[in-house]
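Reopening this ticket.

The earlier resolution said the output was attached, but the attachment link was broken on my side. Pasting everything inline this time so it's all in one place.
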Amino acid sequence: MPEVASQSSLKRRQLLAGLMKMLVLIGLGFFSYALISSFSSNSLDEKKSSNSRWVMSVPVSELVEGKIKTLAWAGGHAWVYFRTSADIQSLNKPEMILRDARSDKSDQPEALKTRQRSMNPRYFVFIPRENKRNCQVSLLKSDEKGRFTEPCYGAKYDAAGRIMKDSGHHEQQNLAVPEHMIENGILKIGIWMPKI
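Inline output:
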Protein backbone atom coordinates (compact mmCIF):
# COMPACT_ATOMS: atom_id res chain seq x y z
CA MET A 1 0.00 0.00 0.00
CA PRO A 2 2.77 2.53 0.79
CA GLU A 3 4.30 1.67 -2.60
CA VAL A 4 1.05 2.65 -4.40
CA ALA A 5 0.97 5.97 -2.47
CA SER A 6 4.62 6.54 -3.37
CA GLN A 7 3.91 5.95 -7.10
CA SER A 8 0.90 8.28 -6.94
CA SER A 9 3.02 10.95 -5.27
CA LEU A 10 5.74 10.50 -7.92
CA LYS A 11 3.22 10.87 -10.76
CA ARG A 12 1.82 14.02 -9.14
CA ARG A 13 5.32 15.49 -8.84
CA GLN A 14 6.08 14.67 -12.48
CA LEU A 15 2.81 16.27 -13.56
CA LEU A 16 3.56 19.42 -11.53
CA ALA A 17 7.11 19.56 -12.89
CA GLY A 18 5.74 19.28 -16.45
CA LEU A 19 3.22 22.06 -15.79
CA MET A 20 5.97 24.30 -14.37
CA LYS A 21 8.13 23.72 -17.45
CA MET A 22 5.20 24.57 -19.69
CA LEU A 23 4.49 27.80 -17.76
CA VAL A 24 8.17 28.81 -17.97
CA LEU A 25 8.13 28.20 -21.74
CA ILE A 26 4.95 30.28 -22.16
CA GLY A 27 6.54 33.09 -20.11
CA LEU A 28 9.68 32.95 -22.23
CA GLY A 29 7.51 33.10 -25.35
CA PHE A 30 5.76 36.28 -24.15
CA PHE A 31 9.10 37.83 -23.16
CA SER A 32 10.62 37.00 -26.55
CA TYR A 33 7.64 38.47 -28.37
CA ALA A 34 7.88 41.71 -26.36
CA LEU A 35 11.63 41.92 -26.97
CA ILE A 36 11.31 41.34 -30.72
CA SER A 37 8.41 43.82 -30.94
CA SER A 38 10.54 46.53 -29.34
CA PHE A 39 12.91 46.29 -32.32
CA SER A 40 10.12 46.18 -34.90
CA SER A 41 8.26 49.00 -36.68
CA ASN A 42 6.61 50.10 -33.42
CA SER A 43 9.87 51.54 -32.09
CA LEU A 44 9.99 55.29 -31.42
CA ASP A 45 12.88 55.80 -33.85
CA GLU A 46 10.90 54.33 -36.73
CA LYS A 47 7.80 56.29 -35.77
CA LYS A 48 9.88 59.46 -35.90
CA SER A 49 11.00 58.60 -39.43
CA SER A 50 7.50 57.92 -40.72
CA ASN A 51 4.27 59.86 -41.12
CA SER A 52 2.85 58.22 -37.98
CA ARG A 53 4.85 60.67 -35.85
CA TRP A 54 2.36 63.45 -36.57
CA VAL A 55 -0.20 63.04 -33.79
CA MET A 56 -2.13 66.31 -34.24
CA SER A 57 -3.02 68.47 -37.22
CA VAL A 58 -4.67 71.89 -37.43
CA PRO A 59 -5.28 74.14 -40.47
CA VAL A 60 -3.43 77.42 -39.94
CA SER A 61 -6.53 79.22 -41.26
CA GLU A 62 -8.23 78.34 -37.92
CA LEU A 63 -5.64 80.33 -35.94
CA VAL A 64 -6.26 83.92 -34.81
CA GLU A 65 -3.46 86.46 -34.32
CA GLY A 66 -2.70 87.12 -30.65
CA LYS A 67 -4.75 84.10 -29.55
CA ILE A 68 -4.03 80.55 -28.42
CA LYS A 69 -5.45 77.36 -29.92
CA THR A 70 -5.51 74.43 -27.48
CA LEU A 71 -5.01 70.95 -28.91
CA ALA A 72 -5.67 67.84 -26.80
CA TRP A 73 -3.67 64.66 -27.32
CA ALA A 74 -2.67 61.55 -25.38
CA GLY A 75 0.25 63.36 -23.74
CA GLY A 76 -1.92 66.21 -22.43
CA HIS A 77 -2.30 69.53 -24.26
CA ALA A 78 -0.28 71.48 -26.77
CA TRP A 79 -0.86 75.15 -27.46
CA VAL A 80 -0.38 77.04 -30.69
CA TYR A 81 0.08 80.77 -30.21
CA PHE A 82 -0.34 82.95 -33.31
CA ARG A 83 2.29 85.62 -32.69
CA THR A 84 1.63 89.28 -33.43
CA SER A 85 4.14 91.45 -35.28
CA ALA A 86 5.12 92.99 -31.93
CA ASP A 87 5.77 89.48 -30.54
CA ILE A 88 8.08 88.66 -33.43
CA GLN A 89 9.99 91.94 -32.99
CA SER A 90 10.30 91.29 -29.23
CA LEU A 91 12.20 88.06 -29.91
CA ASN A 92 15.22 90.15 -30.88
CA LYS A 93 15.55 91.61 -27.37
CA PRO A 94 18.93 91.46 -25.61
CA GLU A 95 19.68 87.89 -24.54
CA MET A 96 20.99 89.02 -21.14
CA ILE A 97 17.42 89.29 -19.78
CA LEU A 98 16.74 85.61 -20.56
CA ARG A 99 17.93 82.71 -18.40
CA ASP A 100 18.53 80.28 -21.28
CA ALA A 101 18.42 82.41 -24.43
CA ARG A 102 19.89 79.67 -26.64
CA SER A 103 17.60 76.96 -25.21
CA ASP A 104 20.54 74.74 -24.26
CA LYS A 105 18.81 73.35 -21.16
CA SER A 106 15.26 73.02 -22.46
CA ASP A 107 13.19 70.43 -24.32
CA GLN A 108 12.80 71.03 -28.05
CA PRO A 109 14.01 69.45 -31.29
CA GLU A 110 17.64 70.33 -32.04
CA ALA A 111 16.61 72.28 -35.16
CA LEU A 112 14.48 74.62 -33.02
CA LYS A 113 17.30 75.94 -30.82
CA THR A 114 16.75 79.38 -32.34
CA ARG A 115 15.38 82.71 -31.11
CA GLN A 116 11.95 81.87 -32.46
CA ARG A 117 11.90 78.21 -31.30
CA SER A 118 9.38 77.47 -34.07
CA MET A 119 9.29 76.27 -37.68
CA ASN A 120 7.42 79.42 -38.71
CA PRO A 121 7.90 82.81 -36.98
CA ARG A 122 4.13 83.35 -36.77
CA TYR A 123 3.20 80.14 -34.96
CA PHE A 124 4.66 79.12 -31.60
CA VAL A 125 3.84 75.50 -30.69
CA PHE A 126 4.56 74.50 -27.09
CA ILE A 127 3.56 72.45 -24.04
CA PRO A 128 1.81 74.94 -21.72
CA ARG A 129 3.26 73.66 -18.44
CA GLU A 130 6.39 74.68 -16.59
CA ASN A 131 8.88 71.96 -15.67
CA LYS A 132 9.22 72.36 -11.88
CA ARG A 133 5.66 71.70 -10.61
CA ASN A 134 3.83 71.19 -13.91
CA CYS A 135 1.88 74.44 -13.46
CA GLN A 136 -0.29 75.62 -16.34
CA VAL A 137 0.89 78.83 -18.02
CA SER A 138 -1.38 81.63 -19.16
CA LEU A 139 -1.17 84.39 -21.75
CA LEU A 140 -0.25 87.86 -20.49
CA LYS A 141 -1.62 91.12 -21.86
CA SER A 142 0.56 92.60 -24.59
CA ASP A 143 1.63 95.58 -22.45
CA GLU A 144 3.09 93.43 -19.66
CA LYS A 145 6.68 92.21 -19.38
CA GLY A 146 6.85 88.81 -21.03
CA ARG A 147 4.16 86.93 -22.96
CA PHE A 148 3.32 83.98 -20.69
CA THR A 149 3.31 83.43 -16.93
CA GLU A 150 2.54 80.65 -14.44
CA PRO A 151 1.00 80.87 -10.92
CA CYS A 152 3.31 78.56 -8.93
CA TYR A 153 6.51 80.62 -8.98
CA GLY A 154 5.46 83.65 -11.00
CA ALA A 155 7.86 82.86 -13.85
CA LYS A 156 7.49 84.94 -16.99
CA TYR A 157 8.30 83.76 -20.50
CA ASP A 158 8.78 85.61 -23.77
CA ALA A 159 6.84 84.89 -27.00
CA ALA A 160 9.21 81.96 -27.68
CA GLY A 161 8.64 80.39 -24.24
CA ARG A 162 12.08 81.42 -22.96
CA ILE A 163 12.12 82.16 -19.24
CA MET A 164 13.06 85.63 -18.01
CA LYS A 165 16.22 85.69 -15.92
CA ASP A 166 14.72 87.61 -12.99
CA SER A 167 11.56 85.50 -12.59
CA GLY A 168 10.42 82.16 -11.21
CA HIS A 169 12.44 79.37 -9.59
CA HIS A 170 16.11 78.82 -10.52
CA GLU A 171 15.37 75.23 -11.68
CA GLN A 172 12.68 76.27 -14.14
CA GLN A 173 13.48 75.95 -17.83
CA ASN A 174 12.11 77.31 -21.07
CA LEU A 175 8.72 75.89 -22.05
CA ALA A 176 8.96 72.60 -23.95
CA VAL A 177 8.44 72.64 -27.72
CA PRO A 178 7.33 69.48 -29.60
CA GLU A 179 8.40 68.56 -33.11
CA HIS A 180 6.18 70.27 -35.68
CA MET A 181 5.97 71.40 -39.29
CA ILE A 182 3.66 73.28 -41.66
CA GLU A 183 2.74 71.57 -44.91
CA ASN A 184 0.10 72.74 -47.40
CA GLY A 185 -1.47 75.10 -44.84
CA ILE A 186 -1.66 72.36 -42.17
CA LEU A 187 0.29 72.60 -38.92
CA LYS A 188 1.34 69.09 -37.90
CA ILE A 189 2.52 68.44 -34.35
CA GLY A 190 4.45 65.32 -33.49
CA ILE A 191 5.55 63.14 -30.62
CA TRP A 192 6.98 64.97 -27.62
CA MET A 193 9.32 63.14 -25.24
CA PRO A 194 10.60 65.10 -22.24
CA LYS A 195 14.22 64.86 -21.16
CA ILE A 196 14.81 62.23 -18.49
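Reporter confirms the inline version is readable. Confidence is low (pLDDT under 50) at residues 41-50. The two ends are 67 Å apart (CA to CA).
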